[in-house]
Amino acid sequence: MSLPFIFLVSLFAFIAQAQVPANETFKYVNEGEFGQYIIEYDGNYRPLDPFASPFQLAFYNTTPNAYTLAVRMGLRRSESLIRWVWEANRGNPVGENATFTFGTNGNLVLANADGRVAWQTNTRNKGVVGFKLLSNGNMVLYNSKGNFVWQSFHYPTDTLLVGQSLRVGGVTKLVSRASETENKDGSYSFVMEPKRLALYYKSKNSPKPIVYFTTSKLIDVGNGSLEHVTLNCYPENSANSAYDLALLYEPGNSISGEVWCMGGALHSF
Ligand SMILES: *[C@@H]1O[C@H](CO)[C@@H](O)[C@H](O)[C@H]1NC(C)=O
Ligand SMILES: *[C@@H]1O[C@H](CO)[C@@H](O)[C@H](O)[C@H]1NC(C)=O
Ligand SMILES: *[C@@H]1O[C@H](CO)[C@@H](O)[C@H](O)[C@H]1NC(C)=O
């Protein structure tokens, strides 16, 4: 073989080898004692190490042996406000001794005890060098330049955190949970459509979703269309520690940049 060829081969090998350092990998097993707080849906949970106040990764269940890997928001001093804000595997629960693994190849995998994969990020050999749960609740896999190769903010389930979006080309709707005990898609959805945001309800009697609220009167995107809506948060004047929430949308024409205020106030942690 010629020298340049060998050089090229070793260069490719070097590029392909960008991988997660062994000391940054992890493997958690869904086993052991349950946590002590009362949590949303009144389930049991097992907290995992990744923590960025007030967010923490955990396994939880509301029916025996049917666990969801999720991000929890809230601390003990605000126990009644503890919420599940992101979920890996709605509708596809894992059992006792399931594993949550981040290997040197950069793939994040949730698997049952028998090895059956329930959920994964599909980021094997895509240049991932690390995992981090950020303080805004975004769980990210990043490359050597610090860019996000994968982020949980791109896969909302039924909740948007501040800074998180629905977006064309990604997830364009939030879907409610079936019931306290059943973690699968439920009857209600919040959908970003080209010209409006809409709330839908479907039931066994009406499998075709019925629209029961839209923003048609609140948003006029003109000749543009909604490409993303992002949840934003603005502190109210300092007297109380309340926040106003707003959905920011930019329909990609000169009308863009309007804010739809939801008007609600949420107390801070
Ligand atoms: C892994 O090792 C590197 C280099 O020694 C160090 O900078 C980094 O903090 C370590 N990571 C963990 C999670 O210990
Ligand atoms: C989980 O694994 C432990 C250790 O291997 C074992 O003792 C236990 O029976 C397993 N639990 C279940 C429900 O399979
Ligand atoms: C869309 O509307 C904006 C402002 O109303 C206008 O400036 C723009 O030319 C329009 N674009 C098209 C393709 O009609």
TrEMBL record:
<dbReference type="InterPro" id="IPR036426">
    <property type="entry name" value="Bulb-type_lectin_dom_sf"/>
</dbReference>
<keyword id="KW-0325">Glycoprotein</keyword>
<dbReference type="GO" id="GO:0009505">
    <property type="term" value="C:plant-type cell wall"/>
</dbReference>
<dbReference type="Pfam" id="PF01453">
    <property type="entry name" value="B_lectin"/>
</dbReference>
<keyword id="KW-1015">Disulfide bond</keyword>
<protein>
    <submittedName>
        <fullName>Epidermis-specific secreted glycoprotein EP1-like</fullName>
    </submittedName>
</protein>
<keyword id="KW-0732">Signal</keyword>
<feature type="signal peptide">
    <location>
        <begin position="1"/>
        <end position="18"/>
    </location>
</feature>
<feature type="domain" description="Bulb-type lectin">
    <location>
        <begin position="36"/>
        <end position="154"/>
    </location>
</feature>
<dbReference type="InterPro" id="IPR001480">
    <property type="entry name" value="Bulb-type_lectin_dom"/>
</dbReference>
